[in-house]
Each structure stands twice: as C-alpha cells, then as structure tokens.
Amino acid sequence: MPTNIGIxxxxxxxxAAGALAAPAVLRAQxxxxxxxxxxxxxxxxxxxxxxxxxxxxxxRSNGRIEMRVAGSAQLGxxxxxxxxxxxGTLDMSVNSQGASSAVLPELAALGLPFLFPGPxxxxxxxxxxxxxxxxxxxxxxxxxxxxxxxxxIRHITNSKRPxxxxxxxxxxxxxTPPDPTTIDIFQALGAATQQLNFxxxxxxxxxGVVDGQENPLANIHSAKLYEVxxxxxxxxxQWQCNPVFASRIAWGRLRPxxxxxVQEVAKEAEAHQRTISQETDTRLLGEYRxxxxxAVNEVDQAxxxxxxxxxxxxWEARPFGDFVKKLRAAATAEA
Length: 335
Description:
Blueprint: H1 2-29, E1 32-38, H2 45-60, E2 65-70, H3 78-87, E3 92-94, H4 97-100, H5 119-126, H6 129-139, E4 143-158, E5 173-176, H7 180-188, E6 192-195, H8 201-206, E7 212-215, H9 217-222, E8 231-247, H10 248-252, H11 256-290, E9 295-298, H12 301-307, H13 309-316, H14 321-334
Parallel strand pairs: 1-2, 1-3, 5-6, 5-7, 8-9
Antiparallel strand pairs: 3-8, 4-7, 4-8
Helix pairs in contact: 2-11, 5-14
C-alpha cells in the first residue's frame, strides 16, 4: 500500500510538472514577428541588405523569426520611425544619421566636413570605441544599436552649374537632410539650405523649389535625382552612417538566444551592405562619367576644407565637445 501511494504521488508530481512545462515548451516554439522600417528606395544598398537580413533570420531560425521589411518610408519618415521605436510600436529601423542626431546630437559629428578620407576609415572608427560609446548613449534614450551601415561619401548635384569652388554655391538653394553638420557645412560654403523629406526631393528639384542637393551616388541613383540634376560635382565633403536600431521595449521581449541571433545577422548584413555600397558607388561613378547627359566634375577640396574649418570650432564648443575631440583624434589616426 505505501508503495502504491508513493507511485501515485510521483505520478501526480510528474503530471503537475508536465502541465507546468507544457506552456514553456509552447513559448519556446512560439513564432517571433518583427517589423523593420527604412526610407530607402528599392535597389538601394540599404534596401537590399535589409531584405537579406530578413531572409537570414528566417532561414537560421527555421522559420520561427519572421521580419517584415517596410521600405520607401511606408511607415513614415525617419523621425516618425524613431518615435515609433522609442514608444515600442516599431521593432527595428535602418535609420538616417540626420534624424537620429535629433535624439542624440553628438551622432551628427560623424558628418563633420572631410573628417574621413573614405568609408574604410569611417568604418574603423564606428566599429571601435567611438561606436561603442554612441551605442551606450543611444540605449539610455530607448534605442538598441545593432550596427552602423554605410550611407556613403556625399557629393553635390544641381541644375545650374558645375561646383568647382565654394563660390559656385553662392545663391543656390541646396536641400539638405535635417542634419546639423550638413547644414553648417553648406551655410559655411555660402549656400541657402532647405530641409525636405527625401521622398519629396525629386519633385522639389523638378519644380525648382530647390536648385540642388547632396547625397551619396547610391541615393542619387535609386531616387533618380540625376534626371532632374545634370551637374554632378564630386565633392566628397562628408561621410554619413545609417544607424540600425531596435526598440528597447521590443528588445526586452526577445529571449536571450533570439537577441544573439538578431545581433549576429545584423552584423553580417552590415558587412554585406558596406560591400555592396562600395561596389555600387564604383559602378555608378563609371556610369555617370560615361553618360553624356550628365556633367561630372572633380572638386579641388583644399578651398572647401578652408571654407568649412569653422564648423569644427563650432562643434568642439558644444556641450559634448570632448566627444567631438575624441572622434576627431580617432579619425586622424585612421586617415
């Protein structure tokens, strides 16, 4: 009799344990649904890499993690997506440096004039202590950093004339993103600046609301801005990143192993995006030089550097001036 009671008790305990374990098993197998938003057009390196990231998450999780990619500003502009991330209504975003600097102003310092000789030097800086420090600061405002994609070296296009000297910008209305270093650069060069959403830029150029704009070649091409701006001046005045963020609220809902997988896949997507960004830049430069409908000119950077030197003084005098000085030292070390 005692034996039967013991067996019955063990059976009951195992049954209870099984009942408790069953929900845990179901939770472990529960699908994860994520949404990533960005503002790039189809075919842009940002768009291509985001789609690859979604495919890799699906494959490596055996279909358990599904990430929907909403590009071309379907979920609003970059500022709207940042708000959605911080309130937890959007899971992830490949955002812009300009919009993100409204949340963390020191991020814009990455775009100081002629700070980096090329993307490779910029990557070394953001992949090191500078990027780690920025990531820590972003987490405090509700954003988990998953990488720094490459938004390229930026050049000037316009519908009026080649830009060979700073004086050529005087009197021109130039669209800039809402990025304070970019605005400072072009105001120092004598241009009138105007901020417009990127998805409004083609029509604004076409209708003469603005005369020109500045962007990396990949963005110029995917948005077809070359159709309404004949003059392409290779100024290389600035490098910018596309920060990749997860919502801290959404991130907190993921299991540790899912976080690790998302981080790994995001890092692989970053490397892929940077590679295709450089390949696209090289290819488009050749195509634009061969296109007789476009006027492509090289720029002597020396007078542009001299004209924008005051931008460094302005930024080093800001409350986060120590960060700017450290960034400048790190960039000089990689030059």
